[in-house]
Write a structure and sequence with these properties.
single chain; 384 residues; alpha+beta; Creatine Kinase, Chain A, domain 2; seven-stranded antiparallel sheet; two-stranded antiparallel sheet; 14 helices
Length: 384
């Protein structure tokens, strides 16, 4: 049997908010000089407008390793932060703003976004959220589809680690990631069903197109999907992480999972898929409780399992692949996130502490903005 090609390329997209440093509210119509500066200095990366004018999206260059992808994320964050600060704004790396109102935001004047606004109405206008998307390039089209399907069971864990959107319009939502609730108002979001070949995927896209639901596969906004433009599988379920260390850990976990599943696929040993409905239940639990979730045990025993008891054996299973990818330390940081909390946990803890210390709700929410801005800036000057 020929050895499988286990080469994996990586790219990371992050959607940030632009904030007024004085009011801590969103810049509903930010200085266009921010985008012009980013375009001038972006190098091999990409910087673009998003649906709302207050958002800015970065896409790293194609990277050959987890370490290179992490350096690239640092570069794109530094680029956006320096451009924003030069033009009087700050950058927020979280999937929701603690108190901003969606009614105050403006749609980016671009045909695609204006068409979405006409079609989806308030579902788009209320889309005051951002995500982190990680691309992994590997294998041939059929193996990418099979691995994508096998990855679905792990999406709740990957999402829980990233959660950073516990507030909405000045309120605690009760969710560690309210972003997925907002996204769920759009069609073609959530989990894809099980697909076993590229032909399966092609037939589904063609069916959507015959009914004039979509123009192409880029309008399938699933939690994980084949990329329309690149030979990659794009994981889209994650919130934006304020801290670079957490980004690195999630990239390492995703890459290690891809490598392991690619090896199993080459041997015809991919495990049977849990029902999509069970994965969806775990997805909701991850959204609601984050790293405090008790997930349904999809490894075979049944019942509910503390998320750390799900993650710890998985990390050990992936150590061989992480070592081959040079990211064992980043992979093991998964357990640190679970023990210490995600971005959502830190936001909630900070808000409640400030309230206990006498801040009004408004003052405490502004303090949460300051916390996330500071975490977004952490480590952007480092070289390694």
């Amino acid at each position: 049997m020929n050895e499988p090609d286990l080469t994996i390329t990586l790219g990371v997209e992050e959607e940030f908010f632009l904030v007024d440093p004085e009011t801590r509210d969103l810049e509903s119509d930010p200085d266009p000089g921010i985008f012009e500066e980013c375009e001038r200095l972006r190098g091999p990366h990409t910087v673009a407008h998003e649906v709302l004018r207050t958002q800015i999206e970065t896409s790293t260059r194609v990277c050959g390793s987890v370490a290179e992808a992490c350096r690239a994320v640092r570069e794109t964050r530094r680029l956006v932060i320096e451009a924003a600060e030069k033009h009087g704004a700050a950058v927020l790396a979280a999937s929701s703003h603690p108190f901003a109102e969606w009614r105050s935001q403006l749609i980016t004047p671009k045909e695609r976004y204006e068409r979405f606004a006409v079609t989806f109405q308030d579902s788009v206008r209320q889309l005051l959220v951002g995500g982190m998307h990680i691309h992994a390039g590997f294998g041939d089209p059929d193996s990418r589809i099979r691995v994508m399907t096998a990855l679905r069971r792990h999406l709740p864990l990957l999402h829980a680690l990233s959660t950073s959107s516990p507030f909405r319009a000045g309120r605690e939502t009760g969710f560690k990631s309210y972003r997925l609730t907002i996204m769920g108002a759009l069609p073609r979001t959530n989990l894809p069903g099980p697909l076993l070949s590229w032909a399966d995927y092609d037939r589904l896209v063609a069916a959507y197109q015959r009914m004039n639901f979509i123009q192409n596969g880029s309008e399938l906004w699933w939690d994980i999907r084949p990329s329309q433009h690149f030979p990659t599988v794009e994981m889209r379920i994650c919130d934006v992480c304020p801290r670079l260390d957490d980004v690195a850990s999630i990239v390492a976990l995703y890459a290690s999972l891809v490598r392991r599943l690619l090896r199993l696929d080459s041997q015809g040993l991919l495990p049977p898929d849990p029902p999509t409905e069970i994965i969806a239940e775990n997805r909701w639990l991850a959204q609601r409780y984050g790293v405090l979730a008790f997930l349904g045990d999809v490894r075979g025993a049944g019942g509910r399992v503390d998320i750390e008891d799900c993650a710890a054996p998985l990390v050990e299973d992936l150590v061989e692949d992480a070592r081959a990818l040079g990211c064992e330390q980043e992979l093991r940081h998964v357990l640190t996130i679970i023990q210490e909390g995600s971005g959502a946990d830190r936001q909630l803890d900070h808000f409640r502490l400030r309230r206990l210390e006498g801040d009004t709700e408004e003052e405490a929410l502004r303090a949460v903005v300051d916390l996330v801005i500071a975490e977004t800036r952490e480590g952007i000057e480092a070289d390694g």
